[in-house]
Design brief:
Chain lengths: 443, 168
């Protein structure tokens, strides 16, 4: 951390913004006490996934894209497999579709539990880390223990359905490679019943955290499905009237390069509010737009928090995230209860030339994939727009709003407040390409 | 020393480049004839998974790559807590470093009473086609030393009493 002491200018550099996924930096520049510029810089080198997918067989894509992220590999598998199945028009039988939803539940549980307990809750409670939190008292140690156990329950689901916990290997175009046995699935139920109670406790606990007042008029964007809480499919909607099919995404959203970052950012092509095209994806957006699609247990838990939803305070995203843990556990138990091993692991399909799009709900928000294949099913073009790229412009806008309150704070306090704003979005900078360093410049 | 049972030997790392050395040690141990029933061998990719293997009992032997400026393939042995253990594995936002995982395990009451860490100097932690032969040459010796540890025939108390290593 450095600080220039000239009266007119002041530069604060925080070397590492912790508890986000990936490597990046943040610069806030003040001139004459006014915020001049906020730049979220992602300097982790680009990973060129879209380029090296070209020339690969479509069948390889779910396993390659799963490697983009160790926390949300299922999301990459789901968006890629759905986009590619849309080209030959594969329609999955309901039992295989249910199995994919169950796999996604596993990822929501593990990713959300990790973020709530290990990365985000320490912010609200004034701990440097989850380790410091666990060391503080037996009560806090129990809380961390609970979070890790919930996470493990999610990982076990991924292990059984996906073949292994990290970078699962069982998803293929048309379905799965191997169908889980009924006894393997039955073995998950007891721990998930524990997790349902633990998730209810998590919702109650998250609702007691102190939320800074930080409301704004956001455009929340999420999938919406006709009769279920969205994971794998639905139309893309917003609180400002957006209602499009996934294939219309490029007509309404644009990815663009900014000089200060290795990651592309994304914005609405035709901004319709004061936020200049920025939009908000992730659990808070999903819950704000889809609470009516949640099971009764989860809606009742949300009502019991006393926190009004839809909610425009990004700090309440931790509550939305906790509601989604409960939802994913409840969904997983429902699907496991109905589980009968499908007669076939996958449906056949014929490769053909075409273009396929898909949007699925990664834990951090919508993940868009587009593929163009030739007649042999070889990838000619690939576009992957991860949720963190989509939230990045919104994060910068939040930081601009926050910045005037940082002027009188010490470097450490300023960095922590800025980090807290960023962690509301659970950014996965590795996914967006891409550890955050904070630099505050005052001129 | 006769280490309390159960003994858990846990390798940490990815299967890529020099990081693969722990995988090789684990593979070697698992293929060994006559692995005692109270010796368990695991491989984990990072600190969080290490927590899954701990229950507050017995002895943990941890194997990890180390960058300390010594000759590649050099085997360092530390008894927890030891400052050099902090130098194992760069910090990752996706996971806990081994030292962080061990501190969290202590806070959660699941750290075993005895923890010994073997750190092996690597040439590079960058992913690459294969591990460097200089590093992999340490595998047979490390396997032998682990066997001596669980047999109670090791006479070495601590190789590296002074802190070594550097942030990397």
């Amino acid at each position: 951390m450095t600080q220039a002491t000239d009266k007119a200018t002041r530069t604060i550099t925080v070397q590492a913004l912790a508890r986000v996924e990936g490597e990046g930096a943040l610069t806030i520049r003040f001139r004459d006490g006014q915020v001049e510029r906020v730049e979220l810089r992602i300097y982790e080198p680009p990973r060129f996934y879209e380029a090296f997918l070209r020339g690969r067989a479509a069948a390889e894509v779910p396993d390659i894209t799963a490697r983009i992220c160790g926390i949300c590999p299922v999301a990459y598998q789901m968006s890629s497999v759905h986009a590619l199945e849309n080209i030959p028009g594969v329609v999955l039988p309901p039992e295989l579709r249910a199995l994919r939803r169950l796999l996604y539940c596993g990822e929501w549980i593990e990713s959300h539990a990790l973020h709530i307990y290990m990365l985000h809750a320490p912010d609200f409670l004034g701990f440097e880390s989850a380790i410091a939190m666990a060391q503080a008292s037996p009560t806090y140690a129990d809380i961390v223990r609970r979070g890790l156990r919930i996470k493990k329950a999610g990982n076990s689901l991924i292990n059984v359905i996906g073949g292994r916990e990290v970078h699962p290997v069982n998803v293929r175009l048309g379905g799965f490679y191997r169908i889980p046995r009924a006894n393997e699935m039955a073995g998950l139920v007891e721990e998930l019943k524990w997790a349902r109670e633990a998730a209810l406790q998590t919702v109650r606990w998250c609702a007691t955290l102190p939320f800074p007042d930080f409301e704004d008029d956001y455009e929340f964007v999420a999938l919406r499905h006709s009769d279920e809480y969205p994971m794998n499919e639905g139309r893309l909607v917003s609180n400002r009237g957006l209602d499009i099919a996934p294939e219309e995404y490029p007509d309404h959203f644009i990815e663009y390069q900014v000089p200060h970052s290795n990651a592309l950012q994304s914005r609405r092509r035709f901004p319709c509010g004061a936020d200049d095209g920025a939009y908000f994806v992730g659990p808070l957006a999903r819950w704000n737009l889809n609470a009516d699609r949640a099971p009764a247990l989860v809606r009742e838990a949300a009502a019991a928090t006393g926190i009004p939803f839809p909610n425009r305070n990004p700090y309440t995203s931790i509550v939305a995230r906790s509601l989604e843990v409960l939802l994913a556990v409840e969904e997983a138990l429902r699907l496991l209860h109905q589980y009968q091993p499908p007669p076939r692991p996958a449906v056949d399909y014929l490769a053909r030339a075409g273009v396929g799009h898909a949007i699925t709900e990664a834990p951090r928000g919508i993940l868009y994939h587009r593929y163009e294949t030739d007649a042999a099913g070889v990838i000619r073009n690939a576009t992957i727009i991860p949720p963190t790229s989509q939230n990045q412009r919104q994060m910068e806008r939040d930081l601009k709003r926050l910045a005037p309150t940082l002027g009188e704070l010490s470097n450490e306090e300023a960095a922590l407040k800025a980090e807290r704003v960023i962690r509301n979005y659970d950014p996965c900078i590795s996914c967006a390409t891409h550890f955050l360093k904070l630099k505050v410049e005052r001129r | 020393m006769n280490w309390p049972r159960p003994i858990r030997i846990v390798g940490v790392g990815s299967p890529l480049g020099d990081d693969a050395l722990a995988w090789e040690v684990v593979r070697n141990l698992r293929q060994r004839q006559g692995l005692p029933s109270d010796v368990e061998v695991y491989m984990v990719e990072g600190g969080q998974r290490l927590l899954d293997r701990l229950d507050g009992r017995g002895t943990l032997f941890l194997i990890d790559a180390l960058v300390a400026g010594t000759r590649p393939g050099t085997i360092h042995r530390f008894v927890w807590p030891h400052p050099s253990i902090e130098a194992l594995r760069p910090g990752s936002t996706h996971d806990l470093r081994p030292a962080e995982a061990l501190r969290l395990a202590e806070a959660l009451g699941i750290a075993p009473p005895h923890i010994v860490v073997f750190g092996i100097e690597v040439e590079s932690l960058a992913p690459q086609a294969g591990p460097n032969p200089s590093v992999m040459a340490a595998v047979p010796e490390l396997v032998q030393r682990l066997v001596q540890e669980w047999q109670g025939s090791s006479t070495i108390e601590e190789d590296s009493p002074e802190p070594i290593g550097r942030e990397h």
